[in-house]
What does this fold into?
Amino acid sequence: MKPEVELGKLQNRVIYCRKCPRLVAYLCEVSKRKLKRYREWEYWSKPLPSFGDPNARHLIIGLAPAANGGNRTGRMFTGDRSGEWLFRALHQFGFANQPNSLCRDDDFALRDCYITATIRCAPPENKPLPEEIETCRPYFLKELDLLKNVKVLIPLGQIAFTQTLKALRLKGLDIPSLAFGHGKVYPLPNGQTMITTYHPSQQNTQTGKLTRPMFHKIFKMIKKKLRVKNLEL
It folds into this structure.
């Protein structure tokens, strides 16, 4: 079976997952008390599937959907400020066909990039419980199997970084203790490379912890690394 078909089946299972009662209840609550500016929206309020190019060479790993962003629109990073930063950068560096996305039906598409997350449901206060992360991890582990062309992994923020390392170690990779920091590059035992970045959250971008030049530097590093990987093939 082709990877894109298997990925589609996997994401369908994600959408109908109800394994975390606290998160199921929270999604129901959010859909009832919509923000005023989104009153006319019918919230997605289900686990979010990953999306992107099934032949992608780089994989972006986020933390969790935003309650009034992806949880509203039905697509990761779509309709929130973090997504505005991420999609603008992806477009600028040739990984997306347009610089922003407001809804899942607006023809936004990724090139050579796939986007997933540590957890697929919006958690209260954007803080998933450890057991919820554990419950959701098998979906990410399966994606790592199916995304056979991935050369570069980009965890957004420290939690995504920690959980990506856990997933890779569960896959049998012998990875030593690594420190998180913006712009760090870590070669992995399987030939892949991990490049770390601060999350483009409002907290980070509005305080200047993450600036656009800092964020764009990450994508320059991705482009350079993919060129090198091509030469090695």
